[in-house]
Write a structure and sequence with these properties.
single chain, 0% strand, mainly alpha, 182 residues, 71% helix, globular
Length: 182
Amino acid sequence: MHGPVSSGWLLVALCAATGAYCLLRMRSRVVEQRRAAGGEALMGFGMAVMAVPAAVFTPPGWVWTALAVVFGGAGLHALWAARTGAGHLHHLIGAGAMVYMAVAMAGTAGHGHGHEGSGTPLLTGTLLLYFVAYVLVAGVRLVPVAAVPGVAEGAGWGDRPELARACRLSMGIAMVAMLLAV
């Protein structure tokens, strides 16, 4: 990503930590939580790779293509899963945003700082609006988390709903930051 090196490394750390926590959530006893955590782990680690500051390391062009293919596959998986419920639509939009950013980064890989003077594309603006709204809603939902009977006593790291919400909120914030840098 283009931008200050220190904020890039903070995004890398946030996304990698979130991805690692989502891997822990994959040990949950609830099948749907495991599935969601797997997609979120992929998203977290993919975002960490994309957030590495361009001033420090510029990956070869094939990396962006590989990320676009991986997240295109994740998007197809989310689309298939969305037919059973709306809960996977967010994953579909997130995967689409990752494909969009990978393609944008592939286009700017050899051109310095990218879109200077071209303005904000409509798709970037639409994705920004979606993720800002998602962050606001997720933040509101996080504040009054009520204790779920029976969960707190014997719950492992994978079964803590408040931590899963915080994970999703942090990835939403990171997505907003990354879209602003595209």
